[in-house]
Amino acid sequence: MKTIKGPAVFLAQFMDDKEPFNSLDGLCKWASNLGYKGIQIPTDPSLINLEKAAASQTYCDEFKEKINSYGLEITELSTHLQGQLVAVHPAYDIMFDNFAPDHCKGNPKARTEWAVKQVKNAATVSRRLGLKAHATFSGSLLWHTMHPWPQRPDGLVEMGFKELAKRWVPILNHFNDEGVDVCYEVHPGEDIHDGVTFERFLKATNNHKRVNILYDPSHFVLQQLDYLSYIDHYHEYIKSFHVKDAEFNPTGKKGAFGGYSDWKDRAGRYRSLGDGQIDFKTIFSKLTEYGCDVWAVMEWECCIKNPEQGAKEGAKFIQDHIIEVTTKRFDDFAGDTKTDNNKLKQILGL
Fold first, then answer.
1. pLDDT band at 327 (very low <50, low <70, confident <90, very high)
2. Whose CA is closest to 202, among 142, 157, 141, 161?
């Protein structure tokens, strides 16, 4: 068993042009004052210069020192947006161009090359920062065929995962060289969105040792997938953990597909910690029992509650759920733990 680290917070949803959310220093001071012990950092140029960091240990040392000066640790770097751009179906080109720099917009090939370089740089920077895990998305070539109508031609899914693996294996190899695990957030909209698709990707990469999971139960609630037994199946791959709540309230008019509604009007929606339906007590127990070496990172996404209130409540929520692993058995006082073979034989009647 292993005690989960935390609480930590993912900074992406809190970045803003207003203080204290408009600078790394401001975000660090804010997070520290709320009681967070770690931060997951999106690799946005306003927070970190990936190219410079990949080339300079001094830059990374100073970056880490700044974080540590606020009593914080870096949990992981995140390339969710860049990872998404490693594999984009043309149907999504226009919308996903929002994630790319101006010189790549309208040029899918250049956009993919930029994204691959970004994610590889993040591997090197993670190693320079002393990190062992990295958070990202897989991207998607098959999501538009999620519902099998029209019928999918035989071989389509296999070809899609073969191509996805082809794009990711060189990146995974670089992460392996740097000694860092890639944790794919299992997420609707990605080709890796549940257990079956994770296994498909793992197989397509020839069981690459750096293919791992960022576990976020909220995405499984929206799919009506058993998020607790998921841990039983895949705990050995869970190297990163987003603590995010959700609820699913279907009606006679709407269900999992959402009816193209805004978030607040969907049957499945994300909620601030403690306001949804997720059984976090059991989640923390299972992850602890299985010895998952993870940070508990709050990701705030809620269509009702203010983010600052959610962050304030989230720190305490996570802290209250972290289980300090016991170093003794509760019944040690009543037992004799010394091994005596003669006594054992007597007990067995031998």
1. confident
2. 161
The label of the residue with tokens 């927070």 reads 47
The structure tokens listed for 149 are 């109508």
Task: Please count the CA atoms within 13 angstroms of the CA of 278 that sit on its side-chain side.
Answer: 31
* pLDDT for the residue 328: 80
23 conformational bin, left if phi > 0, alpha if psi -120 to 50, beta if neither: beta
E-assigned strand segments in 62-206: 73-79, 133-136, 181-185
Q: Would you state the pLDDT for residue 43?
A: 98
CA pseudo-torsion sign 185, 187, 192, 196: positive
Across the chain, mean pLDDT equals 97
Strands (E), the chain: 5-10, 38-42, 73-79, 133-136, 181-185, 211-215, 238-243, 245-248, 268-271, 295-298
The structural domains of the chain, ordered by start, are 5-348 (3.20.20.150)
Name beta bridge partners: 182. Answer: 134, 211
First to last CA, the chain: 35
Q: Which of 253, 226, 230 is nearest to 241 (CA)?
A: 230
Q: List pLDDT tens digits, range 290-324.
A: 999 999 999 999 999 999 999 999 999 999 999 99
- Supply the pTM of this predicted model: 0.96
Closest CA to 41 of 6, 86, 73: 73
Task: State both tokens at 49.
Answer: 């210069």
Tell whether the model's pLDDT for residue 170 goes beyond 90: yes
- The single-letter code of the amino acid at 264 is K
CA-to-CA distance for 324 and 308, rounded, in angstroms?
27
Partners of 211 in beta bridges:
182
